[in-house]
Amino acid sequence: MGVPVHFALAHAPTWGWIVAANVLLGLNQGLTRSMTVNMKIDLVGPSRRGLATGLNEAAGYTAVGVTALLTGYLATGYGLRPVPELLGVVLVATELALSLVVRDTAAHVALELARHSEPLPRSEKTGLKAVFVRTSWRDRSLRGASQAGLVNNLNDGLVVAAAVLTAASGLLAARWITDRTEP
């Protein structure tokens, strides 16, 4: 889902293409991040889930910071497009190659399930609506985790919105922005 993002950003003829690429990027990020966290939790077991999640967050934000630094250097030297997007193309190729050699964690899940013969009471429903109600209202710990995740994502969204509004309000020279974003 995220493979065409860097190509679309590098050669987008209009802002609509950039918005569509960012939608794909968001969907890709949501799915891959969730699965990465789940796989790390599968590997460490139930007693070290917090450690797995923390390591995943640290690695993810470190990678975002390093990538921002590298693309910033590339953009300074070569302009906003298409050179900085080549780093994304290299990362996509690397990720696709790694996906061929990384093993699935299904064996770890089976081992954990064998230790816990019945994780939920049989009377507890596991449908989408039941899980939503449980994590949003009934289970205090899950409700807290859901609210923390919401606040974290809301903060990220507000920072991005503030950056866009700052740029659009003229605090950054409009000519400087448009000169570097024209295809």
Q: Could you report the average pLDDT, rounded to the nearest whole number?
A: 80
How many angstroms separate the termini? 24 Å
The unreliable regions are none
Order of helices and strands: HHHHHHHH
**How many beta-strand runs?**
0
Q: Helical region count?
A: 8
- What's the main sheet like? none
State Rg.
21 Å
Helix content: over 70%
| Percent of sequence in beta strands | under 5%
**3D shape:** globular
The structural class is: mainly alpha
Could you characterize what this model shows?
With 183 residues, this protein is an all-alpha fold. The model has no long low-confidence stretch (mean pLDDT 80). The radius of gyration is 21 Å and the shape is globular. The protein is 79% helix and 0% strand. It contains 8 helices and no strands.
